[in-house]
């Protein structure tokens, strides 16, 4: 069995962020090598400003209070936890170019690369997940 977990973050909402970072931090805390490839709206999850303004799905706003009551860490806190656990963040170069973004728009310690960069990591990962 592989010791790698590969995650593609292609969506940029609040629920997407919790799915991505919950799986990533759990895997990293279980001594797995984890990489997340952020593409299209998924780049919001590591964008310095964007991660503070992720949208809750329509009609699901009541979850915000549930997250607070359950003391679930915020997305910026989960990003920091993932970084501390050694999760590798790969920001999609093509998407960044299309959106006019630079490495400085994102949290520290990201790698900028294309699909080939991610595929090189993911080729022997199990599982590979997409959110």
Automatic annotation (TrEMBL):
InterPro entries: DsrE2-like, DsrEFH-like
Pfam families linked to this entry: DrsE_2
Protein's UniProt name: Sulfur reduction protein DsrE
């Amino acid at each position: 069995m592989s010791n790698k977990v590969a995650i593609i973050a292609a969506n940029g909402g609040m629920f997407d962020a919790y799915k991505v970072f919950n799986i990533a931090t759990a895997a990293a805390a279980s001594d797995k090598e984890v990489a997340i490839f952020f593409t299209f709206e998924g780049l919001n999850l590591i964008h310095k400003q964007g991660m503070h303004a992720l949208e809750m799905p329509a009609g699901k706003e009541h979850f915000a209070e549930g997250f607070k009551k359950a003391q679930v860490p915020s997305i910026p806190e989960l990003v920091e936890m993932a970084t501390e656990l050694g999760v590798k963040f790969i920001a999609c170069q093509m998407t960044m170019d299309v959106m006019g973004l630079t490495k400085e728009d994102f949290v520290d310690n990201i790698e900028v690369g294309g699909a080939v960069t991610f595929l090189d990591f993911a080729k022997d990962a199990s599982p590979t997940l997409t959110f």
